[in-house]
Design a protein that fits this description.
It holds the Pfam family PseudoU_synth_1. 21% of the residues lie in helices and 28% in strands. It is of the alpha+beta class and 270 residues long. The protein has two domains: 117 residues, Alpha-Beta Plaits; 144 residues, Alpha-Beta Plaits. The protein starts with a strand and ends with a helix.
């Protein structure tokens, strides 16, 4: 028995999310179907975490146990010929049997993209939320600072969360600014990427942070209210859940004991 770990990117626009569900048409379903077509094995793959319908991934990590003797560096090419063009296996490595893509993860990074230009960019419309009014970016960045560190994030998760506790640690939370599709930047206009890294994230956590932060940007909340909302541990105190298509899972990191080097694996693939 071997344990194969893969780095996967996908455009989540047309899927009901990553994780398999009765309705079908999930990223997991397509990956498992491709593996079955390749090896004849009906197996279950495990992802580093769920992504909701419409959410994207640049660096989702999955693993599965297989009896196949296909070399690790051959998996990406073999599966990509059997996958739809909006799901791509970027690399694969063999890892110890004890490795688990979710339980072994030590850090995850998400990005939520927002444009406040007057008009949306047609080429970004599936990946960036368009907010046509100006936003106070400096106030949004100030508000983010209140979320750093270890906290109970009950205010920033869905009541449907099934986790036993809501304590998580945010290592980094920043707002990256660049010109929008029409070249605008300054005076509240431009493209803002909310980038958050932590040891784990709750159901809808990043989208609720983004929705609340946009209220800060609109002047409906003060930056320091982010800390007050956090301390309340009450979902009703936070803002709306931002739409899914602006969210992308950027990367998942693991400790050196697992020997995962994606850069080297991608080079070997070629």
């Amino acid at each position: 028995m071997r344990n194969i770990c893969m780095l996967v990117s996908y455009d989540g626009t047309g899927y009901y999310g990553y994780q398999s569900q009765p309705g079908g048409n999930t990223v997991q379903d397509h990956l498992e179907d491709a593996i079955r077509a390749l090896t004849g094995e009906k197996l279950k793959i495990h992802g580093s975490g769920r992504t909701d319908a419409g959410v994207h991934a640049a660096g989702q990590v999955v693993h599965f146990h297989t009896e196949s003797k296909i070399p690790a560096e051959r998996w990406a090419l073999a599966l990509n010929t059997r996958l739809p063009d909006d799901i791509v296996v970027r690399a694969a490595v063999e890892v110890p049997l004890a490795f688990h893509s979710r339980r072994s993860a030590i850090r995850k990074t998400y990005k939520y993209a927002i444009t406040s230009c007057r008009f949306p960019d047609v080429f970004d419309r599936k990946y960036v939320f368009h907010h046509p009014a100006p936003l106070r970016f400096s106030a949004m960045q100030e508000g983010l600072a209140h979320l750093l560190g270890e906290h109970d994030f009950s205010s920033f998760t869905s009541p449907l969360s099934t986790k036993p506790h809501h304590v998580r640690t945010l290592y980094e939370a920043r707002l990256d600014l660049e010109p929008g599709g029409d070249g605008e930047i300054g005076q509240g206009r431009g493209k803002a990427s909310l980038v958050v890294s932590g040891n784990g994230f709750l159901y809808n956590m990043v989208r609720i942070i983004a929705g609340t932060l946009m209220q800060v940007g609109e002047g409906k909340r003060r930056p320091e209210e982010m800390g007050i909302i956090l301390a309340a541990r009450n979902r009703a105190k936070a803002g709306p859940t931002a739409v899914p298509h602006g969210l992308t899972l950027m990367s998942v990191e693991y400790g050196p004991e697992w020997g995962i080097d994606w850069k080297a694996a991608i080079l070997r693939r070629h």
